[in-house]
Amino acid sequence: MMKKVLIPNRGEIAVRIIRAAHALGIQTVVCLSELEGNTIAARLSDEVHYFKDGPFEDNYLNIALIIELAEQYKADCIHPGYGFLSENNLLAEACEKAGILFVGPSADNLKTMGDKQMARSIARKANVPITRSWEGSVQNILSEADTLPYPVLVKAAMGGGGKGMQVCNSKDDLLQQLPTLSKQAQRYFGDQRIYVEQYIAKARHIEVQVLADHHGKTLHLFERECSAQRRFQKIIEEAPAPNLSQEIKQQLYNDAIHLCEAIDYRNAGTIEFLVDDTGQHYFLEMNTRIQVEHCVSEEITGVDLVQWQFKIADGQGINFDQSDLKVKGHAIELRICAEDPANNFRPSPGLIQSLILPDSKNIRLEIGIDQPVEIHSQFDPMIAKVIVHETNREIAIEAAIEANRQLIVKGIQTNAHFIDQLLNHRAYQAAQIHTRFCEDNQSALTAASCMPNNQLAAAYVAYRMTRLNKQFWRQLSEFEFTHAEQNYKAQAEYGINGIKFLLDGKEILVEAIRLNEHSLQFITGDKQYTFHCFENGNQIEFVHHQQTYSITVHDWLPDYQPEKSQEEKNHNAYLAPIPSQVMKINVKNGQKVKKGELLMVLEAMKTENHIKAWKDGTIETIHINAGDQVKMNQALLAYKEEQIEINES
After folding, report:
1. Of 289, 335, 364, 464, which one is the catalytic site residue?
2. Which of 8, 500, 560, 611 has the smallest count of CB within 10 Å of its CB?
3. Cα angle for residues 270, 276, 280 (degrees, 5° grid)
4. How does residue 568 score in pLDDT terms, banded at 50, 70 and 90?
């Protein structure tokens, strides 16, 4: 068995690899940004190498540097995780040349299946169903624009993780998008090739986990349902796939194994398929690495996939057969991301002010942090994965809802409320969703929840009276607060069984109150409630079912004067809306701009923000340069008299 592994990755996947390596007696060296000294990976790893601050090309994507570091730290293997160089055949080739084991498939496997066009060609030859596609240069594809069956899906040939994909609904749309998407493919994946394929609007995304050793054994670990997506990226995965016949499942297993054997595949991998509403399946792509959602397959089979990646790379044979693998129960994984679903999932980097982690023994939490830290804009927005495993899907959904509500991230926007809404949606619970479901139902899933006034007042009174020393609550029998611009008053007193208060002439009893730091529990109206409470001056935020309710307090004791802060805004400066990187500046000092003209492009968490002028004006001073990392509200440019606003697309 190998002795030391270099991990050129970060976040929860770095932690996952470290723990798997340690379980096998392998020492670890993790490569992290200088910004990540207070992460779990930094604390767990035997050694840490901190990259100098700079673009990924200088660190995480620098193959020569990674090989040099492996040699420097005397690591005999490299595990790339997912993302970054995980599917880069050049890294695998460099490892082989340097005599270092690459914990993953062969360089040929990576090269063959990493090229989406080549992978489709292999599937076609292997008689695995694929969708119609149109390939070649941008000019060749555009020459066929009149004959394409719209809508179509444009993809980057070397793309992955949902990046570089765009649905085009018409010829004009395709003509406009194709050149831009080709440039994005070059920037994201180092290859400008793109192709167009038939778009199946309401398909299900089903994938098969495979494991293959160097001794001719190739197995599947059943399937995963990954249809809950936004921007072609998964947010909820589960295993096994519900409402899918055993006949269709077996066809998927057979095709997945057949494809692996056709390319002599080795190590862990995933074959992804689309399944339409008739049950017909189509090969989508192969991920030649460990996937974000591998956890649900581990939960239902009991197989540690990351440990087996190490074992297979070391030449060990798989010591179980297909007949030994059985589906046990149902598992669901939730991806908690730093993004704002109500604002079209705009990235939400920034400082986490409070972080509360689930404490249940029945929850598997994959996370890279365990304390409030800065979420940086240059990294992927995923903060954590919450995984539950229960005896059946119905119980697993209930457990997933509860687990999601226990993970509290304050200070930045997350998709936790969106996930709560999705898990509670009748279509999800009936397993009747498809890849466009979140997009088609985005308004309903992002709608703010409303809480009855008596429940919010009960939470407020319970929190305030519990926090107060008893010598003070007698002085504060009347509680007054404002929520959503409406003022409330409650007359309250301690009773034998709890706290009674009057609200709008109605008596309300709050019982069994427990306050443990930020967690508040109580019973009112024969129902138990759990809130998380965060106090800042005369503002209190109550989080219930991942929805935040802000309270302005008016009943402080006379000797308590909370400080009030006012933000000073510079109305002559154009400010960065979020922490991001300046990708392109289209204007110069003194340049006159017209309404709608593109001024600059910012990028945060792999999402572009196009900054446009909303009115005719003149640029006075540009404060930043292309390539700069900018902080939230940092001045980008100044202008004379005319005003400019953000218009994101």
Report:
1. 289
2. 560
3. 80
4. very low
CATH topology of domain 132-198: Dna Ligase; domain 1 (3.30.1490)
What is the model's pLDDT at position 187?
A: 76
- Give the residue range(s) of CATH 3.30.700.30 domains in the chain: 453-553
Residues of the chain with CATH 2.40.50.100: 573-640
> Under DSSP, is residue 641 helix (H, G, I), strand (E, B) or coil?
coil
Tokens matching residue 213? 């050793």
Find which of 167-176, 377-386, 489-498 is predicted with most confidence, using mean pLDDT.
377-386
Where along the chain do the CATH 3.30.1490.20 domains lie?
132-198
Phi first, then psi: what are they for 344, rounded to 5°?
Answer: 55, 40
Mean pLDDT rounded to a whole number for the chain: 90
| Topology adopted by domain 204-446 | D-amino Acid Aminotransferase; Chain A, domain 1 (3.30.470)
Question: Could you tell me if 460 and 551 are in contact, meaning their C-beta atoms sit under 8 angstroms apart?
Answer: yes
Closest CA to 217 of 134, 324, 133, 367: 324
Q: Nearest to residue 399, comparing CAs of 431, 446, 360?
A: 360
Q: Quote the CA–CA distance of 94 and 64 in Å, as a whole number.
A: 8
- Say which CATH topology domain 4-103 has: Rossmann fold (3.40.50)
Nearest to 573 by CA among 522, 624, 608, 535: 624
Residues with Cβ within 8 Å of residue 470, at least 6 apart in sequence: none
Dist. CA 388–CA 524, nearest whole Å: 29
| Lowest model confidence (mean pLDDT) among 412-421, 469-478, 510-519 | 469-478
Span 100-139, pLDDT tens digits: 999 999 999 999 998 888 999 999 999 999 998 888 778 8
Q: What's the pLDDT score for residue 31?
A: 98
Residue in the block written with tokens 């192709």: 195
**Are the beta carbons of 18 and 45 closer than 8 angstroms?**
yes
Contact 5/77 with Cβ under 8 angstroms? yes
Tell the burial category of 3 from Cβ atoms under 10 Å away from its Cβ (0-12, 13-18, 19+).
Answer: exposed
Token pair of 108 as six digits: 């040929």
Structural contact between residues 104 and 83, judged by C-beta atoms closer than 8 angstroms: no
Residues paired with 386 in a beta bridge: 334, 365
In the structure encoding, which two tokens stand for residue 149, read together?
A: 């069956």
Length of the chain: 649
Assigned token pair, 186: 């070059």
Tokens of 209: 């986990």
For residue 37, name the pLDDT band (cuts at 50, 70, 90): very high
Q: Which tokens is 123 given?
A: 């599937």
In CATH, the number for domain 453-553 is: 3.30.700.30
CATH number given to 573-640: 2.40.50.100
DSSP-assigned letters across all residues of 230-246:
ETTEEEEEEESPTT--H
> Higher-confidence residue: 72 or 579?
72
Task: Tell me if residue 16 is catalytic.
Answer: no
Distance CA 196, CA 134 (A): 5
- 73 within 8 A of 47, measured Cβ to Cβ: yes
